[in-house]
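Dear colleagues,

As part of the handover before I leave the project, I'm documenting each prediction I ran so the next person doesn't have to rerun anything. This entry is a single chain, and its sequence is reproduced below.
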Amino acid sequence: MSTIEKTYVNGEVIIKEGDIGNSFFQLLQGNAGVYVNYGKEDQVKLTVLKEGQYFGEMAVIEAYPRSSTVVAEGDVKAVEIPGSELNSYFTEQPDKIIALIEHLGNRLRALTDDYDEAKGVLAELKNSDADKKSESFLAKIAKHIGFYKTSKAALSEPSAEALREQSADITKGESTETYTRGTIIYKQGEVSNCMYILHGGSVGIYCNYGEANELKLTDLLPVSFFGEMGMLSGKARSATVVATSDDTFVEIIRLEGLQDMFKTNPVKVDMILRYLSFRLRSLTNDYFRTCKEISESYSK
């Protein structure tokens, strides 16, 4: 496998925003800063990467331009993994499958927290009786407006078409269950450690299912993924999923089973990676739109 170990000096650009990426990286030594609009007047530093962390993976998984610039802070050593060598990389180091998926899960959790906070801020801004002058509230406003201003030129809406076309060819695994219409697959508030692939039938996703304020969030049809945050975080389910047709057929995926799955069905692992990347892009756009509303509401 042709992975490449590289060294960088302080201030050296490792990947550049807007470039088409054909490889991703794992930081072996040192730190690296992540920026949008690097080198421009409105440059913003998003975070600092530390030893062991991956970066640049989404450009490879989904073939999108790089969304940020990564710059070495001090002396840095990183391994570069060509996208064309991803299967070989996993074959030689199967533990990296879980590491990369957990990395995407960490990003999803952090972004979900930011999005939930932004929705709360927007609700407060729209509440005429809310105290809008506290330092903590103003700091939250500044944070989310900052994200809107720095991201509006870089974001692009992800397309579900490629994901849908490729997922249609996924073969069914061994751990499967069939449900009749009305069966609750999992309930809001429960804790679980698995995700699902819907191979047949249909499911509905609900908030407050069975209560007076029940809200149907969406419908899913084959072939769809759901429940990934339960697998990645171990936190309580945020919604209830119900079979909405007879012969609803789902496959159960657990994190600890991904290494064995890769040996027999690497395409399925690749699709899970693509789905998590797609979820990240979709959630980023949802967060962006909420931050835009915050900016517009605050400016009134």
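The longest strand covers residues 23-36. Residues 98-157+280-299 form one domain.

All the best with the project,
I.
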